[in-house]
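Milestone M4 deliverable, item 7.
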Amino acid sequence: MKPHSSEMKNAIIAILRKHGQLERFLGSEEFHYRIEKPNFLPLVVERHERQLTVTHYRNENGDLIADPDMEFLLGADGEWYPVALQLWNGSYYRARWSEDGKEFINPKQIREQVSFARMWARNLKEQGW
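Output delivered:
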């Protein structure tokens, strides 16, 4: 299995293109865009330099809850590499991280998060985002 999520990358690029936001996303290291769609949780796409996040948010008792929230690293090759996944119940799964100047990768989490991102990207397309 590949260590990156081309399906999520392609889905988000298509969504941003549809909403006229692709050039702004590609041309800036700081980007935030929220999309509302009736009967669905809002979708938020953010970029902070090489960190990318894709998140659905729901409001629970006045608090915004990520459901889910995926973080990606924009690679030098332009691919999106999974970093972390957070679910509504607070579960948090790290696929890669840095500690004391060293880079660490959890191969099992890479596989699981690439698979999750593929499913989510397919859902976004089917839901007409």
